[in-house]
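step 3/5: co-fold with adenosine monophosphate
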Amino acid sequence: MTDLIKHSPNSPILLTASLHVDEARKAISDLVNELIEDSRKLNTASDMESVVLDQAINRILAEDLLSPINVPAADNSAMDGFAFNGDCLGNSEELATLKIVGTAYAGKPYEGVIGPGECLKIMTGAVMPHECDTVIPQEFTESANELVASFKQNQVKRGENRRLRGEDLQSGKAAIAAGRLLRPSDLGLAASLGIGSLKVHRKLKVAILSSGDELRPLGEPLGAGSIYDSNRYSLTGLLNRLNLEIIDCGIVRDDPASLKAAFIDAASKADVLISSGGVSVGEADFTKQIMQELGDVGFWKIAMRPGRPMALGMLKPVHGSSRKILFFGLPGNPVAVMVTFYQFVRSALLQLNGASQTEPPMTQAIAEAPIRKKPGRTEFQRAILGRGSDGKPTVKLTGSQGAGILRSMSEANCFVILPHDQANVAAGDWVDVALFDGLL
Ligand code: AMP
Ligand code: MG
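step 4/5: write tokens
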């Protein structure tokens, strides 16, 4: 257990002082490493499986994918033009005139030999004859008819417009490294090597539940003071982006017995449990008590907005299992759920599932208008990334930024991330931006 987690349940310091986002991320990553170490020791059933390419999107490659072939398999032409031996090239503008002895097409090589003073009409992708090392593109010839092609001797250099065998990838070398979160290009790359299935880590089983007496499932009428449970749906969407197995544990009422039973049930089925609600100041004591019985869970105040309260830790193995369960108790506010998922949960799930790159990509853009910001917390403001009249990237916040206002998130296409020490942002300042597309 990392110290931050071990000490936090009873630590007055961590309950009153706020934890820097980076400290929280580090503690989570350490915790995940401990879980990975534990499961290595347990040496449970293999965590790998083979999947066909069309099922492999967003899975994590478990072994280096070695190329069984050279790509390209043979030297070939990069242009439509004429292939010849570069011996006839020189530094002057004097014309070289070569006799055309045949044509090579992609997939239909020329079988004959190209002698001195000769060339071959060649199409892009067609195999280069052994005697040739250079291609003059059609449009760079001075004249060309059925019989001869003429071009200036200094128009190309030896070796130009030729793709070399194995230039993209050599046989036996890793085409994709283990740990890759597989994207569409990776599936295409595997197919280009003739590989139809990939060894990936098994899908993580992630249980989700919503806690709160006020929550109603869809389809039921809303009574006074009740609201629809939206968090399970945003969480399902977020988890689906990662091609995981989702176990939906529904809505749980705010009473200790139901909550405890739900946590035990979820823990018996899943590798990870994500709950939302019930960790804010008013409710933490109640949840904390249950969590102390079920595992080692820390209750944190994180210096961030939205998403300040969060619980994190491990649940003890249940029902004869020897596996501990990673637990995230996210805040209940709908935007805070998405922000904490983005900032903490997504990376932890990827790390736990063997991904080598777990951090989402970031970019920068110019703030169109001033943004108010207090130093001492990291803020995740919802915004739209666009382009100014000068072509530079710009961001504009989407309306009211309250933690419960899901519309601010739905209308946005990115977060503006304002770092811990940042004060107010002036219009025209550059700010950090994390795009949702494909992530959230
Ligand atoms: P809590 O963290 O339980 O104090 O909840 C904070 C706020 O988020 C309250 O206004 C809750 O009603 C709301 N909330 C909690 N859980 C959900 C949920 N599953 N769906 C929508 N809103 C929620
Ligand atoms: Mg609540």
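step 5/5: annotate
Residues 212, 277-278, 283, 332 surround magnesium ion (ligand 2) (CB under 6 Å).
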